[in-house]
Write a structure and sequence with these properties.
Strand order of the largest sheet: 1-2-3
Number of domains: 2
Radius of gyration: 17 Å
Number of helices: 2
Order of helices and strands: EEEEEHH
Structural class: alpha+beta
């Protein structure tokens, strides 16, 4: 295993209402060009793989003002990225292609893309 030569700190701040529902979120990273500037966001999906228990820990948050069409686009883009990441990590072209086919179906079903478009 290589020695760590650099570290980055990623922070996520979540503003909650009196019912603990997210109403504002911001994030930044210590090695980003504008690391002092917090970037607003409306949703996040964080998955961490626990190597000891071989299980995935998840934090899924979105602000209460996030619209359904925004959530559809967020999931479309996330699923597309996950399929790409899966291929890069495993080189399993067949399964990654099948995942991308689902992403295409999801995009068409939600109206993110029309039936003539390809991913």
């Amino acid at each position: 295993m290589s020695d760590i030569i650099k570290k980055s700190i990623i922070t996520i701040e979540v503003g909650l209402d009196d019912n603990n529902v997210p109403i504002a979120m911001e994030w930044n990273a210590s090695d980003a060009p504008n690391h002092d500037d917090k970037q607003p966001c409306k949703a996040m999906l964080l998955s961490l793989f626990d190597k000891e228990h071989l299980d995935t820990l998840k934090i899924d948050l979105w602000t209460k003002d996030m619209q359904i069409m925004e959530m559809d686009r967020f999931f479309f883009q996330t699923l597309r990225g996950m399929a790409d990441t899966y291929y890069q990590a495993t080189q399993n072209r067949q399964l990654a292609s099948e995942m991308q086919q689902f992403v295409q179906y999801f995009g068409q079903s939600t109206g993110i893309i029309n039936s003539e478009e390809t991913s």
